[in-house]
Specification:
Largest sheet: 7 strands, parallel
Oligomer: single chain
Order of helices and strands: EHEHEHEHEHEEHEEHEEHEHH
Distance between the termini: 38 Å
Structural class: alpha/beta
Strand content: 15-25%
Radius of gyration: 19 Å
Strand order of the largest sheet: 3-2-1-4-5-6-10
């Protein structure tokens, strides 16, 4: 039995990851700052029975938290592409870059491996599809810039302090507990309530959708088998455009009302992950078809709405 620190443990992916670590028979120290990017009550709902310490990485006693820990899953950070423009960028700079630097430095002092969450947003409008890890990074949002900065921080601190860090670049993760600002949650909630769904763009944008259990599996594989300093795409096996709406309508057996809006600033037109490196080095690959994962998220949405 080992012990792991999970940051962002009340978030979407973090709560699933913490539960998986516990289910695998390990101890877990859960930490979350419960910031107000979205309703903190939803994060407490995500946490469920997890014992989550309400603490901010910018000021927390990281040496105390890392004492006796065998590894760190660093998922905490400020999410969201669209909100990263303008005055709120300060939150991205502090909660993504500064907080990660502080955690990395503490992990290096303790000789503890860190697996940290990066994003497909670092690729921007990628130079090729499917996109490999060695593609030129050219993010088109401040959020993507901060995630790329975290990758460079990990590299720099590995050189200067011996930090053992592995990055996972998530591609559009979905499933139960997905954040309310991501597409599938408001889409499915609109289907359930009979409300209109705000669709940005012309419907031709495509994404490499990744079910949350697959994302968790890839993250754990990165800690167990990833090479120090490496970066791995963790993306879904299917790429989908607006047919995802038709798929959701079929699952719900309802027709979605769509309000069309212009393309949102910072949104890329396409993502498609090349996961060959993760397959070879981590023995990981996505296994959940989009239809199955979307049905699981629909079941979660309807159960949540029906709950007293």
């Amino acid at each position: 039995m080992s012990a792991y620190l999970v940051t962002g443990a009340a978030g979407f992916i973090g709560s699933h990851l913490a539960e998986r670590v516990l289910a695998d028979g390990h101890d877990v120290v859960c930490l979350d700052a419960f910031t107000d990017y979205y309703d903190p009550a939803r994060k407490r709902e995500n946490a469920g029975r997890l014992d989550v310490l309400d603490a901010d990485l910018l000021v927390a006693d990281l040496d105390g938290l890392l004492d006796g820990v065998d590894g760190v899953y660093h998922l905490a950070g400020q999410p969201g592409v669209r909100a990263s423009f303008g005055p709120d960028f300060v939150h991205y700079a502090t909660r993504n870059v500064q907080a990660s630097a502080r955690l990395f430095e503490a992990a290096a002092r303790h000789g503890v491996r860190v697996v940290y969450a990066s994003s497909s947003s670092i690729y921007g409008d990628a130079e090729s599809y499917p996109t490999r890890e060695d593609a030129e990074p050219r993010p088109i949002s401040p959020y993507g810039v901060t995630k790329l900065c975290v990758e460079h921080l990990a590299y720099a601190l590995a050189r200067s302090t011996g930090l053992d860090a592995v990055g996972v670049r998530f591609f559009t993760v979905y499933g139960p507990r997905q954040r309310p600002d991501m597409a599938f949650t408001p889409l499915l909630e609109a289907l359930d309530a009979g409300d209109a769904f705000r669709l940005y763009g012309d419907g031709t944008a495509s994404r490499s959708f990744t079910f949350v259990a697959d994302a968790v599996g890839g993250t754990i594989a990165a800690l167990e088998r990833g090479r120090p300093g490496e970066l791995y795409n963790v993306g879904g096996g299917e790429e989908a455009t607006s047919e995802a709406i038709a798929l959701a309508e079929g699952i719900a057996d309802r027709e979605l009302q769509v309000e069309r809006h212009g393309t949102a600033t910072g949104d890329v037109r396409r993502t498609r992950a090349d996961v060959g490196k993760a397959e070879r080095e981590l023995d990981w690959r996505p296994t959940t078809p989009l239809a199955d994962g979307l049905r699981a998220q629909w079941d979660w949405v309807t159960a949540r709405v029906a709950a007293p």
